[in-house]
Specification:
Oligomer: single chain
Structural class: mainly alpha
Distance between the termini: 56 Å
Number of helices: 14
Radius of gyration: 26 Å
Number of strands: 0
Order of helices and strands: HHHHHHHHHHHHHH
Helix content: over 70%
Strand content: under 5%
Length: about 290
């Protein structure tokens, strides 16, 4: 009798457990969906505004889809009034040039801090961490004076040079390289490989997730950078996307929000596509670096 009396309670326990788990999943996914909507809302509004006529943009009525499709006019006006594709190409050249030099410098430095034993290694790593606290505005004046005296203003090099050394990249790769097995490195040394060969032929191929993660950070930061190009660039032909948008939003087009959002959409699209292509590597790099 006692066993039969306890049966309903024990049978109800799995039901409560399943219900609790279902509610927790609904809550977690609800929060994630709300966060995704919050982050995507500016992009959605930008896309919608870029295909609206001026009358609907300034209308008091809020609607996601325009009553009259005005995308051809807005995008055509934006492409006609400014060399947007040139601005995007400048952004690609700038981000690619900075990223290549950053990787060439940061990977050997990170390997040395992670795997080589030499006096002052820990003190040097502390200096790297302190370098994270120095903003680009601090060396801006001496860098500008040096570039002006060398006649290098209004060049791609002038936009790239302050960012060739990335202390964040050194820190990120060092954390990743610390988990690389020492036995493999020692075996490579016994086979007669130099430290240079070990870095580029053995260690670096295993760090592609971390490289992809840093590449996304670097590309986003320098694609959207306005401060330094605004100082060293006055030629519109060399302007990266943010500075190009500033040149485009002059007195003539400043009130044409349809054309402005169309231009912003064109200049944002390459960055979004690059992130979508590298998103899996980016997530793997962040996860593996954090866990290791």
């Amino acid at each position: 009798m006692a066993g039969h009396a306890l049966a309903p309670a024990s049978a109800a326990t799995p039901v409560h457990s399943v219900l609790r788990r279902f509610l927790s999943l609904v809550l977690v996914h609800g929060v994630l969906i709300a966060g995704a909507i919050f982050m995507l809302a500016p992009f959605i509004w930008m896309l919608v505004t870029s295909i609206k006529p001026p009358a609907e943009i300034f209308s008091a009525e809020i609607s996601l889809w325009p009553k009259q499709f005005y995308g051809l006019q807005n995008y055509g006006f934006a492409m006609e009034k400014a060399p947007l594709l040139r601005f995007a190409l400048n952004g690609v050249i700038l981000c690619a040039g900075i990223l290549v030099v950053q990787l060439l410098v940061a990977i050997p430095c990170a390997y040395a801090l992670a795997k080589l034993d030499f006096p002052g290694r820990d003190a040097l790593f502390v200096l790297v961490l302190l370098g994270l606290c120095i903003p680009v505005q601090v060396p801006a004046m001496p860098l500008y004076i040096a570039l002006a005296q060398l006649g290098l203003l209004n060049t791609y090099f002038s936009m790239m040079v302050p960012f060739f050394l990335s202390v964040f990249a050194i820190f990120l790769f060092r954390q990743f390289f610390r988990s690389f097995p020492d036995d493999i490195i020692n075996a490579a040394r016994l086979d007669g490989m130099s430290e240079f060969e070990i870095v580029w032929r053995i260690v670096t191929p295993s760090a592609w997730p971390a490289i992809a993660a840093f590449s996304v950070f670097s590309a986003v930061a320098h694609w959207n950078d306005l401060y330094w190009p605004l100082i060293v660039i006055s030629d519109a032909k060399l302007a990266p996307p943010p500075l190009g948008m500033m040149f485009f939003a002059d007195a003539e087009t400043g009130s044409n929000y349809g054309a402005l959002t169309a231009a912003a959409t064109i200049l944002t699209a390459p960055l979004v596509l690059a992130f979508l292509i590298a998103r899996r590597r980016f997530i793997d790099g962040i996860t593996m670096t954090g866990v290791k």
